[in-house]
Structure formats: structure tokens, C-alpha cells
Design a protein that fits this description.
The structure holds 2 protein chains of 2 kinds.
Chain A: E1 2-7, H1 25-38, H2 54-74, E2 81-84, H3 88-95, H4 101-118, E3 123-129, H5 133-143, E4 150-157, E5 160-166, H6 167-179, E6 184-187, H7 200-211, E7 222-223, E8 230-231, H8 234-243, H9 251-260, E9 263-268, H10 274-282, E10 287-290, H11 291-294, H12 296-308
Parallel strand pairs in A: 1-2, 1-9, 2-7, 9-10
Antiparallel strand pairs in A: 3-5, 3-6, 4-5, 7-8
Chain B: H1 2-11, H2 16-27, E1 36-37, H3 42-49, E2 55-58, H4 67-74, E3 84-90, H5 94-101, E4 105-112, H6 117-125, E5 130-134, H7 137-143, E6 152-160, E7 166-167, H8 175-183, E8 188-196, E9 212-215, H9 235-252, E10 256-259, H10 263-278, E11 288-290, H11 298-302, E12 308-310, H12 319-323, H13 341-350, E13 354-357, E14 361-362, E15 368-369, H14 382-385, H15 397-401, E16 415-419, E17 423-424, E18 428-429, H16 436-444, E19 460-462, E20 467-469, H17 476-485, H18 501-506, E21 510-511, H19 533-539
Parallel strand pairs in B: 1-9, 2-3, 2-6, 3-4, 4-5, 6-8, 8-9, 10-11, 10-13, 11-12, 13-16, 16-19
Antiparallel strand pairs in B: 6-7, 14-15, 17-18, 19-20, 20-21
Helix pairs in contact in B: 4-5, 9-10
The chains are: A alpha/beta, B alpha/beta.
Pfam family, one (chain A): Acyl_transf_1
Protein name (chain A): Malonyl CoA-acyl carrier protein transacylase
Catalytic activity (chain A): holo-[ACP] + malonyl-CoA = malonyl-[ACP] + CoA
């Protein structure tokens, strides 16, 4: 049975998230490294006030994911696959040995700052449940106009898809979706229209920042965000990390690719259990856990047991 | 003339295939012990026995997988082995597609790829894989003897002896067909076995058809695909099962049949000893089956409903039960089941009165498909069994019952029944204006839309609303009306004018539960002969041994 580690993105944060990490020396090392690289204690970034900034959120998520991964690694547990949602993809890239943690911190900080600066007000994201992609896409196309742009963005599940753009455009789509049979359609508490073409200039600047850091071949196969393929070439991964912020995250397909490749134990790195819930619904035959919900030691125990049984 | 012919004949060798085979066999002489390939040398040997561009048929069934050989092939060096043309009836293991990702294989012909359907679609899009065709099983097996003749066959068996005789036991499935196509055209046959022994329980495939055997490092993979836990059968499925028994099996006196693997057909199997018995139908319907050993058929067998069952493959846990009921099943001298997918598919296509199965989508004319956009899944046995081979001639009551005219040359028809609920999980309508299969054809450039069962072959559609007797419709218009009348509040159902319902009922084009004297409130789980896997085990006198994942006690 193969193991996949999943790294969550924005929306999974909560105050004090770094305090909930496993109390291991490997974790402490990662947190210290982050603090020294950023010249600020990472513990200050995870307070309620600090987490109102996208930049703090992204750095905290990256740090938490990498720290938890290192804790597993210290116990001799290495996944067969990694994938991360949005900023979580940076944690996955660090885990796969593609980029260095310090470089990731620097670039994620830039990523957060660019996203904050780009659209100060009047933009955001919404989510629609219980409506399939084709139907939602047609509603989005109808609602779109240049003054009130709106796009279909992340496909988290076949019937859980986000939309991004101007608040008025989003509202139009949400109203229509509710009328046309969606089981739920609501605004998300996000102030940036992520994962749509409105952020293409962020992608361009991010690409430049990513060009300055060394990339290596992944030693763990890595599933990308945009096209939901396993990526082996560092150049492809760099492109995915840069483009993902202005492209829809094909999360559902990415996790299906892991499953089709044989992953049957999926463990979500902290914080939260958003990805674990999606996976549990998508793959009833797989074993799905999250560090936050099941605890580090249970996850570690199951992964260890699984390793011994080989298949 | 004479002289010219001799001149031509002299130039040509008539044994090129055999010569090439001998050469390959010579090249591995030092790596093998007679017929036996040492387990740890399999990759080296494959790199020599197989050549770039070869057509390789790899045994990947629904259930049994030549998993040791497929993993070994995926480990070969793509610099030595490339451009293979793979023929795999069921693409279900990750390494089946790793072959393409790594550049070892290029082209594929297959029937079913459900468990790898997203990767299939991606690789096709990325140009890593080129498509042969998505075949029905019999077409694929048939073409192994016509224009897809394999250079190499990689198969799995339970046991072999020193002479290469194989025991495949209950899981014989498609092994004999694949081996035959390669062995008698000077192809190379490699069989992985779980065990090498001195004496076999019986010989399923003679050793003279086999070139090499290799003992696998672990037993071949086997999936219990046909076990349905009665716990998950719903009241709606029971209502549909009652309608099928009354409105189709009894009405047309259906004696021989094949069932799909859904819960709705499992419900029918479990209603025979209860509801069927109460209608006095035992011995009149459902006597002969083309079916895997479904555990849910046990109560009907134990109650004396079933005369015979021929199987495509085995089912994990059913071995002892089958051996103890040899009057019903096809069994060898050793007592275990003999299955054969090719013959059972053919029997299911040509020899039975009725096929019944389910689908994910159906259009207003009754065409159905299980493909979803962005996925390339193919289909299982349904397209073979779910169609009416035009040249058939039968004299069973059900067959003759499908005649709708007095024409002296009128002929009967095979019954092809689709049973669906109007909406599937996630609030998705089953009845749609246009099948996703049409989009898939356009997206992927397939030669034909991957329709599972063509509408003109479908004789009956059953929903929770009622039955549409499509074979009676004398025009496309009528056909559409009958389908729409039972399609609920789906886009297709909403086109139905409810004023027409009564006339359709009078003409016998549709039947509602009350027309069949079925009260919806009677459709309860308490009617099931067994309500859990545990109760099936009790019915079997403890002979059925369910896999761990079905044990809840």
C-alpha cells in the first residue's frame, strides 16, 4: 500500500496552529530555522491578529507542513507521493527535495505580499456545492463581464468548486447557482481573487523570484496543481508553483492521480483536515487520516505498520 | 507458369515467425533453467525475449492480474524495450500505465480502464499513449486471432508443474484464450505461477502451449469484485427488483440470463426465494445463468431455483461453496470451478434470453454510457451481453415473446434491460439530453463515441417510476415518449406530457407498479432472503468464506 502526504492551503489556518504541531526536536528545528530565516519569531505570525494577513497565513502553513513532514521523516517514514493545495504545494516541494526550506520561505513571503498588494478591495472568492463543473462553468461564462470579472477556480471535488473574481461577479454566480439547484453557494472569507487570471501579474513576478533559487529533481513523486500530473522535471515544478496562483487548482484530479498510482493511505499534514475530508469522500476504499484529527502518533503508527506490510 | 511459381516459392521462407522465436529462445539459454525463469532474472529475460515494437498481451482481467509480470515489465530498460503495443483487457494496475509513462510501451488496445481512467485520459492528451481501440471483450479476444495477434503473452496461473502444465482453477478467466492466440502463431508465452509443484489438481492449459514459467515473488493479485453486501440494498432497489420479476421475468418467462454487478440486480437475486416464490415462479424463470459466482445468488441456489451457472471468473471466498454444489457449477475433476471469460461472454451474448444491467447516463432514445468527461474508462462486459446479435435464432418463450408482428419471417429478440434510478448520487440526473460519451469522443478524438449499450438494442428500461417496454414501440417518437414517461423529474422526464401516461399504459408501452399489482409500500428490506453477508454465510452452511472487508461480525 502506497502512502501520500497532502499539504493544505489557505483556509486551513487557525490561531496557534504551530503550537499544535508534534512536540519533537525535528519540529522545533524547522520552526527555529523559519524564525532565523525570516528574522522574526514564526510564533508571532500565528496569532489571530497576524493571521489576518495572507502573508502570515502562507508562511505559517508552509512552516507547519514542512515541520510535520520532518517529524515523520525523523521516524523513518517517507511517503511515496506528495501533493499540496495552493501554498501547500510549496510545502510539498520542500518535502520532495525540490527546493530548500529557506528558499521556500523567501518566495512564499513574496507570494503573500504580492497577493495582498494586487487587489486591496472588492475582490474575493466563493464556493459552490452540489453543482458539476460544466453547469457551473456556463453560469460563470454568463455572469462574466469586464467590469465584474469572475472565473471558475479550484476544483476541490466534483461537486465542490470555488469561483474567484470581483465580489459583484461572484455574487451573481452564487445567486444563479442557488436558483439552478446548487445545494450551497456562499462567499468565502478571502480578500484576494486567487487562482484566476486576475493574478497573472503575480505569477510573472513569482516566476522571477523562483528563477533565483535552485531547483532539484524530486526524490518523491510530486503531483502538480494546474494540470494534476505527477511532475518529475524541476522546470515543470517551478512553472507549476509560479502559475498555480493565477490558475485553477485541479485538486480533485491531483488526488485521483495519486490514488490511481496506488496511494491507499493518505495523510494530511497539519493544520486541519480539509483535504482529508475531501479524500475520504472521494476514495471510500482508501485509509485517510490527518495529523490534526488523528494525532501524530496514530498517523505514525499506521504508516509504520503499512511500511512493514509492503503492499 | 509452373516455373514462375517455383521461382517465387524459392525466394520466400514460410517459417519466419518460428525462426524468430527460436532466435529469441536461444538468446536466453544461459539465463533460464529449461522452461523455468529464475524469479530474480525475470527483468533480464524479458529484455531479451521481448523486442521493441512487439505486440504484447498482458493478462489483466477484471479480477486476476499477472501482477508479477506487469511489475517486471515496467522495470525493464526503456532504452532496450520501447514502442511496445500493449493489449490489456482491463487496465487496472498503476504499472500498466507506468509502461507508457516510462516509454516502454506506446500503443494500447483495451476494454476497460475504470481504475486508471484519469491517467489514461491525461496520457492520451499528453501524447504518451496512442489509442488502438476501446473494444468489447469479445471483439478484443476475437482480434487476438485476426489482426492483433500477439508476439508475446504474459499470463498468470495458480500452479505449474515441471512440464509447464498450468492449473488456473476457479480463476481461469481469459488465460486459455490469450495463450492460444500466442502459442499457435509462434508467439512466446510466459506464465507467472504462485507455486511450482510435482502434481497439479488438474490441467487447465497444457504445457505444450507454454514456453516459460516463473514463480512470482508473491501470489497474483485477485479482487473480490462481484460481492455485494445486502446491507446496502435500498427499498427503491427492492421495488425495482419486484417490478423486474413481475413485469419482465414472469411476463416473458425468462429462463436464462446474465445479471450486472449492481445492487439492483443483487436485490433481484435475493428476492427470488421470497417474492418470486410467493408468485409461484420457481422452475419457470431464472434457471440458467451466465454469471460469476455471486454470493447473493446463494439463497436462490439453496432454494432450488438454479439449474446451472457458467462463470466468467471466480469470486474470492466462493471456492468451497462452488465445489460443494457441483450440480450447479462447471467444475473440474478436482472439484474446483472452471471459469472462462471468452466462452461465458459469448454465451451471455448469444445463448441467454436476457441481460440486465445498470448505467450512469441514458439519453432520450435509450442509448447509455458510463463514461464521464475527462476520464477514459471503457466498459466491461455490458456491451457484449447488452446487445441483440441480429443473426440469432431461438425458440425460447422469452425470445419469441419479443416478436411484434405477424410477418411470416418475424423473429424474436434478445431482452436487454437497463435498470436505473432517475438520479444518481450527487443529484446528477441519469436521463440526459446528450451523453458525456459524445464530449469524450470530441475531446479525445476517438473514432466513435464510447456508447455502452445502443438504444436500439434496449428492450426494457426500469426506473423507480415504472417499466418502459421499448420493444413494443413502433416509432422513435413512441420510444422517446415511453422513456420520458418513466424518467421522473430529469431533463428528459420533464418533456413528458402527463396526459399521455394513461394511453401509454393502455398500449402496454409502460407499466407502473400498480399495473403489476405491486404496492410501493410492500417494497421493504424484510423481503430480502439475506439482509447481510453474515446471513448469506448461513444460507451457504458456512461454505462461503467472505473476504475480511465484508466481515462485520
Amino acid at each position: 500500500m502506497k502512502i501520500a502526504f497532502l499539504f493544505p492551503g489557505q483556509g486551513s489556518q487557525k490561531p496557534g496552529l504551530l503550537n499544535d504541531l508534534p512536540h519533537e526536536t525535528s519540529v522545533k528545528k524547522v520552526l527555529d530555522e523559519a524564525s532565523s530565516a525570516l528574522n522574526v519569531s514564526v510564533y508571532n505570525l500565528q496569532t489571530k491578529e497576524a493571521l489576518s494577513s495572507t502573508t502570515s497565513v502562507q508562511i505559517s502553513l508552509l512552516t507547519a507542513g514542512v515541520a510535520a513532514f520532518k517529524a515523520f521523516e525523523a521516524e523513518g517514514i517517507k511517503p511515496d507521493y506528495v501533493a499540496g493545495h495552493s501554498v501547500g504545494a510549496f510545502s510539498a516541494a520542500v518535502a520532495a527535495g525540490v527546493i530548500d526550506f529557506r528558499d521556500a520561505l523567501r518566495v512564499v513571503k513574496i507570494r503573500g505580499e504580492l497577493m495582498e498588494r494586487k487587489y486591496p478591495q472588492g475582490y474575493g472568492m466563493g464556493v459552490v456545492l452540489g453543482m458539476d463543473e460544466d453547469k457551473l462553468q456556463s453560469l460563470v461564462s454568463q455572469a462574466y463581464d469586464e467590469k465584474h470579472p469572475v472565473f471558475m477556480s479550484n476544483k476541490n471535488a466534483p461537486d465542490q468548486i470555488t469561483i474567484s473574481g470581483s465580489l459583484s461577479g461572484i455574487q451573481r454566480v452564487l445567486d444563479e447557482a442557488r436558483q439552478k439547484g446548487a445545494s450551497k453557494a456562499s462567499m468565502l472569507d478571502v480578500s484576494t481573487p486567487s487562482h484566476c487570471p486576475l493574478l497573472s501579474s503575480v505569477s510573472e513576478e513569482l516566476a522571477e523570484a523562483l528563477h533565483d533559487i535552485p531547483f532539484h529533481r524530486p526524490f518523491i513523486p510530486y503531483a502538480g496543481n494546474r494540470r494534476a500530473r505527477l511532475l518529475f522535471d524541476p522546470v515543470d515544478i517551478r512553472l507549476d508553483l509560479a502559475e498555480s496562483v493565477s490558475s485553477a487548482v485541479q485538486w480533485h484530479d491531483a488526488s485521483v492521480v495519486l490514488y490511481e498510482n496506488g496511494a491507499r493511505l493518505l495523510i494530511e499534514m497539519p493544520p486541519g483536515n480539509v483535504l482529508a475530508r475531501l479524500a475520504a469522500k472521494a476514495f471510500p476504499e482508501a485509509r485517510v487520516m490527518s495529523v490534526t484529527e488523528n494525532g501524530f502518533s496514530d498517523c505514525q503508527y499506521i504508516a509504520q505498520k503499512n511500511k512493514r506490510s509492503k503492499k | 507458369m509452373e516455373a514462375t511459381k517455383q521461382a517465387i516459392n524459392k525466394k520466400r521462407s514460410w517459417t519466419t515467425r518460428l525462426d524468430a522465436k527460436k532466435k529469441r529462445i536461444d538468446s536466453v539459454k544461459n539465463l533460464v533453467n529449461g522452461m523455468v525463469i529464475p524469479t530474480d532474472r525475470i527483468v533480464d529475460v524479458m529484455e531479451k525475449l521481448i523486442q521493441p515494437g512487439d505486440r504484447v498481451v498482458l493478462e489483466g482481467n477484471n479480477q486476476k492480474q499477472a501482477s508479477f509480470l506487469s511489475e517486471a515489465l515496467a522495470q525493464t530498460n526503456p532504452k532496450k524495450l520501447f514502442d511496445l503495443h500493449m493489449i490489456i483487457s482491463s487496465i487496472s494496475r498503476p504499472e500498466h500505465l507506468d509502461l507508457f509513462e516510462r516509454g516502454i510501451a506506446k500503443k494500447v488496445d483495451f476494454s476497460y480502464a475504470g481504475p486508471q481512467s484519469l491517467r489514461m485520459a491525461q496520457m492520451l492528451e499528453d501524447g504518451k499513449l496512442t489509442m488502438g481501440e476501446i473494444h468489447t471483450y469479445i471483439e478484443l479476444y476475437g482480434r487476438l486471432f485476426i489482426d492483433l495477434i500477439p508476439s508475446v503473452a504474459l499470463v498468470a496461473a495458480d500452479k505449474a508443474d515441471r512440464h509447464g502444465n498450468l492449473y488456473t482453477g476457479p480463476n481461469t478467466e481469459e488465460t486459455p484464450t490469450i495463450v492460444e492466440a500466442a502459442a499457435f502463431r509462434d508467439g512466446i508465452v510466459i506464465a507467472q505461477v504462485n507455486e511450482l509443484t510435482d502434481e497439479l489438481p488438474r490441467v487447465d492449459i497444457p504445457g505444450s502451449w507454454i514456453d516459460y514459467i516463473v514463480v512470482a515473488d508473491e501470489p497474483y493479485e485477485l479482487e473480490p469484485l462481484f460481492t455485494r453486501d445486502p446491507r446496502h440494498i435500498t427499498d427503491i432497489q427492492i421495488l425495482q427488483a419486484m417490478m423486474v420479476i413481475r413485469g419482465i421475468y414472469e411476463k416473458h418467462e425468462v429462463q436464462s440470463l446474465n445479471h450486472g454487478i449492481g445492487y439492483n440486480t443483487a436485490a433481484i437475486e435475493l428476492l427470488l426465494p421470497t417474492y418470486g416464490e410467493s408468485l409461484g415462479l420457481k422452475g419457470k424463470i431464472c434457471r440458467h445463468w451466465a454469471l460469476n459466482p455471486h454470493p447473493t445468488l446463494i439463497p436462490a441456489i439453496e432454494s432450488g431455483w438454479v439449474d446451472s451457472v457458467h462463470c466468467f471468473g471466480g469470486e474470492v471466498g466462493m471456492e468451497k461453496y462452488v465445489a460443494a454444489r457441483r450440480d450447479v457449477f462447471f467444475t473440474g475433476r478436482d472439484g474446483t470451478l472452471r471459469s472462462n471469460r471468452t466462452l461465458c461472454q459469448m454465451a451471455g451474448q448469444y445463448a441467454v434470453d436476457l441481460f440486465i444491467g445498470s448505467t450512469l447516463q441514458m439519453d432520450s432514445e435509450g442509448n447509455s454510457s458510463t463514461v464521464t468527461r475527462g476520464r477514459l474508462a471503457g466498459y466491461g462486459g455490458a456491451p457484449n451481453m447488452g446487445h441483440d446479435p441480429g443473426g440469432r435464432r431461438h425458440s425460447t418463450p422469452a425470445w419469441l415473446n419479443m416478436m411484434t408482428s405477424n410477418d411470416p419471417l418475424a423473429r424474436g429478440k434478445k431482452l436487454v434491460v437497463q435498470v436505473v434510478e432517475t438520479f444518481q448520487a450527487g443529484n446528477k440526473p441519469v436521463f440526459v439530453e446528450s451523453l458525456d460519451a459524445v464530449d469524450v469522443k470530441n475531446d479525445t478524438g476517438l473514432a466513435a463515441a464510447p456508447v455502452m449499450i445502443y438504444g436500439d438494442d434496449v428492450t426494457h428500461v426500469v426506473t423507480e417510476e415504472g417499466i418502459a417496454y421499448l420493444y413494443k414501440a413502433d416509432s422513435m417518437e413512441k420510444r422517446r415518449e415511453a422513456i420520458a414517461a418513466i424518467a421522473g423529474v430529469t431533463p428528459v422526464g420533464l418533456t413528458h406530457d402527463s396526459k399521455k401516461t394513461d394511453s401509454l399504459r393502455r398500449e402496454g408501452l409502460i407499466a407502473l407498479p400498480e399495473d403489476l399489482s405491486i404496492r410501493r409500500t410492500d417494497a421493504k428490506r424484510s423481503l430480502l432472503a439475506a439482509k447481510s453477508v453474515e446471513e448469506i454465510v448461513q444460507w451457504s452452511d458456512g461454505l462461503y468464506e467472505p473476504p475480511a472487508k465484508f466481515k462485520s461480525w
